[in-house]
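Table S2 (continued). Query chain:
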Amino acid sequence: MSSESTPELRSEIDSKNVKVITLAKTPRKYTRKSKVNDKAKELVDKMIKEQENEVKNVEIVNEVIDVSPINEVTIEQISESQIEVKNNLFTNEEFENMIDEAVKNDPNSKTIRERTLGAIFDTHNYKKCSKGKFITESDKVTGSCLDINRMVDKQLTIMDFDLPHNLDKYNLEFYQQHIIRDLLPKDTPVLITAHGGIHAYVNRYNYPLKGNRLVASKKIPFNGFTVDIFAQIDKHKMSDGKPNGIKENRVMLPDSIIHDDDYEQTKIEYAYPPAPEGFWERSNLPNLWEILNTWNVDLRQDDYVKEERVIQNDGTSIPMNEELINVIAEGFRGVQIHNYATKSSDEVTLLPLFQSLNALKQYISAVKIEELCDKIHSIANLTAKATQHWSDVKSKVGDDVGYNKPWLLVTYIKNFNRKYYDETLKKCISDHMKQFNEQKRQKQKVELIDKVNKQMIDLKDPFLLMPHIQEKAIKEEYKDESELMQDLMRVMCYTTANDGSAMYMVKQWDSASGVNIIRYMSEQNVKSLLNKVVWKKNKKTYDIFHEYNHLFHK
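Corresponding output:
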């Protein structure tokens, strides 16, 4: 056996003096000429590994390795001649066939056209997803729809970005570009809906959705719009506990025309634009798991939007107060504490526990920290080893905080006392965050007032309300009101006329002269203009302007 194909056996002693035996094998070479899906490689590797594991241990190591206690070091020399792994498990033809089969069975390797075959139906009389039982031969075909529940493929999923129907063309295009450019992976196949929304086609990879659609109150909220997810989860109608037909789960497709319910009054038709070139031939769609993770959303939880971040923009943790710390400490009641573990996510262990408690010294006194240690010792469930080494480890740690932060204590409660976290601690943290953010806002408000005189309208500055402030608002770049106010002061102000009325001045671009100019507007026009900029959910820019109105007076 050549040295190139022979596995190497490596013996290492880690920093805790525990011997680790690692079998390191050279990367497997694939002989397939064409590019193969990574999932196919992964599947074949798994099959090969399962057969390799059938080799008896005696063929790998001819002696039983006794891993001694932590403080004992054992080093054994094991020669390569004692190791024999059969690499020739398959012929080249068998190997090629397995990869072909794996690729063929992976729905994401197929095109959208192939995955939707047999599940596309005509729609009639300008209705959205018209039901078959109401259709006659004389009815007019006005479009087509995809019935997701009729697909053989259960993984093709559509993300529905529902934009407000009353947006003007400028704002609509702005939101569309923001979604495609900033919220979705590059080259995600998308379709534009009749009302300007976006349907993004992705692969579910068995993401555990709870239904074919998200409950209305559980749609994913973004600044100015929401996201629904259409998938094949609940396929069949049920009667007496048995399947009784397939539920309709339809989505409109390009080149369709619809009438809204108010058509008799408005006489307005809405058309679904044609599909982009090459849309139906797209394959290897983006991963739904990765998209939701990027958004910091976990739909597996009842309260699915993840908890607020405890790390601020400057990298520092949001400070705790004594009230919150006491609630956290109470969460260790009944939690099992171990002497040692490989990772903090596996168990609560003494070293990181003491270091995290020490990190609280920036918020509470050393005496209070000592009291917390005693409390946790009395209410937690310490293992025999943890009880034995408690005082010794605590003494060795001293005042050291290591790399652990105080919020690790919350992670412990969340992982190992979930009921207490959900019923008590989570709300306490939320209230603490609100209080902290309000205090921060008031402080920033004072700081903002101090900076008012420094903010002047500069006509040479290209920065404008539209599009610059609007773009930053859509991208959620404004972290608080003060940042938004600073930008507003660069583009608008008002003064009082002789009759006491307000005269509002807004810097805008004049295309005729090619320069920025000051336009005079009524309060109603200013309100209408600012209401187009939504900087936070349910809070428009005009609300902020109105609150700080006196700061804009010149």
